[in-house]
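Consider the subject:
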Amino acid sequence: MDITILANAVDNGIVPTRNLNLMYIIIDCVFLVFFLALLIYKKRYATVIFALFGGVLYTIVDYCGFYLLAHSRSVYINGTLVGPLETFLVLLWMSMSYGITNFAFIWVCVSKDKYWKYWLLTIIIWWLIAPSIAELGGEASITTSRTTGEYHGIMGIFMVVSYFILIVLLLRAKKPFVNVFILFLIGFSVQFAWEFSLLINGIRPMNEESIRTLLVNSCMETNLGMPAIYGIYYLFNKHFNEDLSRKNVEVKTLYN
């Protein structure tokens, strides 16, 4: 099968596609270890746990949901469609990579970590520069694609319902506990940042669907879980500090 045809396919709606090489996977794994080590060094244990949770969650959704159930995920190596084992290994790396960085990005923002600028700068610089370093490993030999026509509508419904529930809770609350616009902006920003880095570095192919993929995915794919993520943070922050020690102080919110 010609993977260039796959990269430009639009028959099933938006088709996010990535082209990369083995070098990218190797150096990204090194970065993930380094990034998690930095968080542990600064005793950001809750951030580490939540980031790893994100990686596991992304892996389950991508492999079990998109690949096994929806049959919307495909992985090609040297132009050949690979089987379940090779697909799992590629998706395991990809899901852990973006799950860890995305969820760490979100957690340091909602928790108002005093080093949030450094954490975000570390993640974003890596997203932007890693593809250039990976070019030392030769041409892209791995292609992943995912059709979205099967479930983007369901994602949209889930996102609308999630935010409507949050808005109803805010309307009923005596004091606002979260700024919903900031919450949406965080969800949009994290997805946009890595989608944009993929696009400008040629990992995501530039075609007639590129801008639509960038904006629709940024608006929806991370944002659909933001109300639930904030709920997890709110409950956690009532009882624990970032280093997992217990506390007896008033919970911080994303509103004040």
Observations:
- The beta strands are 17-20, 73-77, 80-81, 142-146.
- DSSP finds nine helices and four strands in the chain.
- The chain has one domain: 3-239.
- Residues 81 and 129 are 28 Å apart (CA to CA).
